[in-house]
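Good morning C.,

I know you're traveling, so I'll keep this short. The sequence:
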Amino acid sequence: MTDHSHMDHSGHMDHGGDGGMEPMCSMNMLFTWNTENLCIVFRQWHVRSTASLLVSLVAVVLLGAGYEALRAASRRYELSLTKEIETIPRQNQAAAGKRAHLTKSLLYGLQNFYAFMLMLVFMTYNGWVMISVSLGAFLGYYFFGETTSSTKENACH
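The tokens, ready to paste straight into the viewer:
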């Protein structure tokens, strides 16, 4: 029988020395403030320093605000579309509405994709990232949600 008690079972490979290997992303399933080896959604979005953490947190805030900007643009599109369709003769309104439904469907799909991606960002379980997502939602709603109810319809973001 082989004795494996000397092996590192922490999920990271230990080859002794630095060997040119880069630190692996940590995957937390519990709330943490630790930013060491933090990766945000993608392995390439690897926080390696205080500066990259700050840049990442600003990026997350902007992503959160961008989601609200997309929602606002979708609402503006729908309002302008409704006004435009009202100017079309009644017999042509249904056809115009069906054509516009494709664009509305695309905007709806983009909003859902965006919301789920923000949910994944939030699910780093890192307190700093979670606060940044929430701050982005706050700022996005503040700047783009003036004509929108503050109650949410979508549960994931």
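Safe travels,
E.
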